[in-house]
Design the sequence.
């Protein structure tokens, strides 16, 4: 009986020590904005709508805790700027995102003029405002053949010479074959030009690489609407809303969200 009590007491002691360790590590993580920033950066790296909104929420929480966290300021500026760019491509105002991005870019570049995320945020804001030539100048300033950032090649494809667009997109996709922004943007551009065949190729390519992202049903909804297929458009839109309920597009275009 005595031995059993000792064994039970020993197990309880070990359990208590482990529980204390877990609580300590959890508290340390919760109080460390660098860890939360890294989590947000990994989420944003997925480059899809739902992940972007999640990353923005995570970064906002970091900045509530530590307003001067420079890396978080830079990354949220980039995320906001991209959201503003997407809305501008759809003919919608992204002024709230744009104003917030500009404020964070200014704060970051005051301390780190060459910050990569702030630089890319500036490029998106310039393109959103139609200042493509200015965006191209920023990109070309440091661009070389050894550039390993797929985002840079993607943006250069949008802002650079039209006859080199395909080459730059291929460079981006070689670096990141799952880059959601590229497939989505190319599909939207084809849809805007009325080329449903090319648009569907980009959508299917995205579906093959990242079938679970919200952009897939969104693009299929737009394609269906262009083909006057109301039923499929409604079905795909509903699926998009289910996958990315926090998307600014949901707030702007869903009937249930309108006042």
Sequence:
């Amino acid at each position: 009986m005595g031995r059993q009590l000792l064994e039970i007491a020993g197990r309880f002691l070990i359990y208590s020590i482990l529980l204390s360790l877990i609580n300590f590590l959890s508290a340390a993580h919760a109080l460390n904005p660098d860890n939360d920033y890294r989590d947000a950066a990994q989420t944003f790296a997925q480059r899809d709508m739902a992940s972007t909104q999640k990353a923005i929420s995570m970064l906002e929480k970091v900045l509530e805790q530590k307003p001067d966290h420079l890396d978080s300021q830079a990354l949220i500026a980039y995320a906001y700027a991209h959201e503003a760019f997407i809305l501008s491509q759809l003919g919608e105002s992204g002024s709230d995102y744009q104003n917030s991005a500009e404020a964070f870019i200014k704060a970051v570049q005051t301390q780190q003029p060459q910050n990569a995320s702030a630089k890319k945020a500036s490029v998106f804001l310039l393109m959103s405002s139609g200042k493509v030539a200015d965006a191209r100048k920023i990109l070309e300033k440091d661009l070389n053949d050894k550039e390993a950032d797929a985002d840079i090649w993607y943006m250069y494809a949008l802002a650079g010479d039209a006859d080199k667009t395909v080459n730059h997109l291929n460079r981006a996709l070689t670096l990141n074959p799952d880059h959601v922004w590229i497939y989505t943007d190319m599909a939207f551009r084809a849809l805007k030009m009325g080329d449903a065949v090319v648009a569907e190729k980009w959508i299917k390519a995205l579906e093959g690489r990242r079938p679970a992202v919200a952009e897939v049903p969104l693009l299929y909804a737009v394609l269906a609407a262009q083909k006057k297929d109301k039923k499929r458009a409604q079905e795909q839109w509903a699926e998009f809303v289910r996958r990315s309920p926090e998307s600014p597009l949901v707030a702007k275009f869903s009937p249930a969200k309108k006042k």
Notes: The chain has 14 helices and no strands. The chain has three domains: 32-130, 137-177, 178-251.
